[in-house]
Specification:
This is Monosaccharide ABC transporter ATP-binding protein, CUT2 family. This protein has 503 residues and is of the alpha/beta class. It contains 17 helices and 25 strands. Bound molecules: adenosine-5'-triphosphate (ATP).
């Protein structure tokens, strides 16, 4: 990795206040040229706020941003982009129905007079792909690329114009272990050539794998700066982030006492037939590569995919397939892994979101007292960092939004909880709290189906694993067979097709 050199970007007393809420206290940080600089912190600590202030998508309440010594505080986002400062935010994605080339030249399409110059566009795009050792065709639709390739494409967009600084806010969300490693190798290769990165992640292993130094934020304040994460243990990093020791939760596997959920011959749009059972109080892991049938089956159970054959029975009641309201009424609740697309309703307040579609009533009226009690229950348990229960969901940090979605499902008191990436974007302390909570629910009889890219989470939480390939169950792991290596071996992990940039 390149030697850290002169300051590329510096902040002086940079502050962000929203109304009466201080998202970022006066902050002084320095990002050195050639470094991979990590920002760490719990949910709501202020990481995204800080990178948005650096990128110019949010303007500060006070303080300065210096770029190579020049004060750029008042420059807007577009000007900073021209200077090579780019942010790939948690929500940024490629435009699925545009080609790779169109995505890469956005928004500055090359023109010939009033016309779009397609040849120039393709040539520019191909040069970029070559420069960053990406081998997918410039004419492919961006939406047809694999998830990691879409991520690479969006990173390349942040690196265009010889980008001086690429800030990546949780870039590995929804990538498998193999995909992460290949992405990291690529980033390291670019870094070797002098590219500076800012990197945000809740995974200590990722921070240690890639960052040369870190800044740690807690409740909007810098509590550590300049540490080398490679010289620390994962527990030390967690302690720095949380401000306390994080007790890793270890679940004891419990044999199921009776069958609660019976899935029999389920066929859903080319997936299946799928048959399995889930016991009372059991956590069943569904594992498979994308489009293997694991996630499709989970969504079909929740009524979110049309089904053509088979039945789903919960406590003896047969659910009407393909009907989400019927699934909920029958006791099935599903946590989506697409928080932005199908999870949150931005304008709702937190307390409304927690009881959305599940309003407690007193006579004909919404029972406001019960809404408040629901908020209090999950606020203390899941520790949202928010200014009030009436704050709109869209203002919350990503991890806090995830906690609200989880709280909403728990408030439904389901019999079967289907969790698709329950700790997506959630910090190290809350992750353990979510695991503890799910364990308690299963101790009280709730059945859980878990999908998780993080094999460590899978291994620690489940009683049993069913693997999927080609749209049907391909095997089962129980007891001591449930290990990260065991799962990965069953997945028949195909190596990713890309070589690192330096190759
Ligand atoms: N537009 C806004 N209005 C009010 N408060 C906001 C707004 N944007 C962010 N906040 C608050 O600022 C705080 C910091 O949020 P930020 O998104 O920076 O956290 P984060 O460290 O990136 O968290 P996460 O790990 O969950 O993504 C949060 O408590 C959030 O609710």
């Amino acid at each position: 990795m390149s030697q850290a050199t002169a300051p590329l970007l510096e902040t002086r007393g940079l502050t962000k206040v929203y109304g009466r809420f201080t998202a970022l206290e006066p902050t002084d940080v320095t990002i050195h040229e050639g470094s991979i600089h990590g920002f760490l912190g719990k949910n709501g600590a202020g990481k995204s706020t800080l990178v948005q202030l650096l990128a110019g998508s949010v303007m500060p309440t006070a303080g300065q941003v210096l770029f190579r010594g020049q004060d750029i505080t008042s420059l807007p986002l577009a000007r900073r982009r021209e200077m090579g400062i780019h942010l790939l935010s948690q929500h940024a994605q490629v435009v699925a129905d545009l080609s790779v080339a169109e995505n890469l030249v956005l928004p500055g399409y090359p023109r010939k007079g009033p016309f779009l110059d397609r040849r120039a566009m393709r040539r520019q795009a191909q040069e970029l792909l070559d420069r960053y050792a990406l081998r997918f065709p410039v004419d492919a639709l961006a939406g047809s690329l694999s998830a990691p390739d879409q991520r690479r494409l969006s990173i390349v967009r942040t690196l265009m114009d010889q980008g001086a600084l690429a800030m990546l806010d949780e870039p590995t969300t929804a990538l498998s272990q193999g995909e992460r490693e290949s992405l990291f190798e690529w980033i390291r290769g670019l870094n070797e050539e002098g590219q500076t990165f800012v990197f945000i992640s809740h995974f200590n292993s990722e921070i240690q794998a890639i960052c040369t130094n870190v800044t740690v934020l807690r409740d909007g304040r810098v509590v550590a700066d300049g540490e080398d994460p490679r010289a620390m243990t994962s527990a030390e990093i967690s302690e720095l982030v949380v401000g306390d020791k994080v007790q890793e939760f270890v679940r004891t596997r419990r044999p199921a006492t009776r069958e609660r959920v019976v899935v029999d011959g389920l066929v859903s749009d080319g997936v299946g037939p799928v048959s399995f059972t889930v016991g009372e109080g059991e956590i069943l892991g569904l594992v498979g590569l994308p489009e293997s049938g694991a996630q499709e089956t989970a969504r079909a159970l929740a009524g979110l995919r049309p089904t053509q054959a088979g039945t789903v029975t919960v406590d003896g009641r047969v659910l009407r397939a393909g009907h989400v309201r019927d699934a909920i009424a029958g006791g099935v609740a599903y946590l989506t892994n697409d928080r932005i697309g199908e999870g949150i309703v931005g304008a709702l307040t937190i307390r409304e979101m927690l009881r959305l579609g599940n309003w407690p009533t007193r006579g004909p009226l919404v029972d406001d007292g019960e809404v408040s009690r629901t908020y209090d229950r999950y606020h203390s348990r899941l520790e949202f960092r928010v200014s009030s229960s009436r704050q709109p969901i869209e203002e919350l940090s990503g991890g806090n939004q995830q906690k609200i979605l989880l709280g909403r499902l728990l408030a439904l008191e389901p019999k079967l909880l289907v969790l698709d990436e329950p700790t997506l974007g959630v910090d190290v302390a809350t992750k353990e709290e979510v695991h503890r909570l799910v364990d308690e629910l299963t101790a009280n009889g709730m059945s859980v189906i878990l999908l998780a890219y993080d094999t460590d989470e899978m291994v620690r939480m489940v009683d049993r694993v069913i693997t999927f390939s080609d749209g049907t169950p391909s095997g089962q792991l129980t007891g001591d067979e449930i290990t990260a290596d065991g799962i990965i071996a069953r997945l028949n992990h195909a190596p990713t097709e890309l070589a690192p940039a330096s190759a």
